[in-house]
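Standup notes, structure subgroup. Blocker cleared on the protoporphyrin IX containing FE input:
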Amino acid sequence: MQQSGTPAPVARYSVLGKLFHWGFVVIFAYGIYKQVDNISQLADGALLRFEVIFAALFLILLGARFFYMTRTQSSALSENTHALQKLGAKVVHYGMYVSMGLIAASGLIIGALYTLFGPEGVLISLAVFIHETSVTASYWLIGLHIAAALYHRFLHDGVWSAMVPIWRE
Ligand code: HEM
Ligand code: HEM
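Run returned:
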C-alpha cells in the first residue's frame, strides 16, 4: 500500500514500448526526408514501388505499435492529473496515430490511383490533399507533443523519464 506523502511510483515504458516510440521517430523522419516533392516524380517506377512498399510497412508497423501500446502500456501521467489534461494528452497521442496512419493510407491510395489512371483526376487530387493535410496536422501534433514533454521535464513528475533516455530527471 502507498503511504501518504510518498510520491507515486514512476511508470516506465517497456523496452519494446520505447523501441516502437523511438524507432518510429527515425522511420517517420526518413519518410519525411524521402518525401515526393512533385507528383510527376511517380513516373519513376522504382520510386513509386519504393514509396508504396515503405508506406505499406509503415502502416503495418503503426498498427502493431498501436495494438501493443494500447493493450500493454499506460501513460506516465499520475492518477491525480486533471481530467482535461489527461484528455488533452489522449487527443494528441491518438491524433498522432490518426495523422500518421492517414499519411501512409492516402499515400497508398495515391500510388494505386496513379498506377490505374495516371497523375490527373479529382480522386487523386483529393488523395493528395488528404496526404498533405495529414502531414501538416502531424507536424502540429508532434510540435505540441514535444512541447508537453518538455513541460513535464520541468515539472519533474516522471513523465519525461518514463520515455526519454537522455537528460533524465
Ligand atoms: C515523430 C515524433 C513523435 C511521435 C509521433 C510521438 C508519439 C508518441 C505517442 C503516440 C506516445 C504515446 C505512447 C505510444 O502510444 O507510443 C508518446 C509518448 C511519449 N513521447 Fe512521444 N512522439 C514523438 C517524439 C517524441 C519526442 C521527440 C519526445 C521528447 C522530446 C517525446 C516524448 C514522449 C514522452 C515523454 C512520452 C510519454 C507520455 C506519457 O507517458 O503520457 N516524443 N509519443
Ligand atoms: C509513410 C509514407 C509517406 C510519408 C511519410 C510521406 C510524406 C510526404 C510529405 C512530407 C509530403 C510533402 C507534403 C507537403 O509538402 O505538404 C508528401 C507529398 C506527397 N507524397 Fe508522400 N509520403 C508517404 C507516402 C507516399 C506514397 C506511398 C505516395 C505515392 C506513391 C506518396 C506521394 C506523394 C505525393 C504525390 C505528394 C505531393 C507532391 C506534390 O506536392 O505535388 N507519398 N509526402
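Discussed briefly. The pocket of protoporphyrin IX containing FE (ligand 2) is lined by residues 31-32, 35-39, 42, 48, 51-52, 54-55, 58, 103-104, 107-108, 110-111, 128, 131-132, 135 (CB under 6 Å).
Next: hand off to the docking folks.
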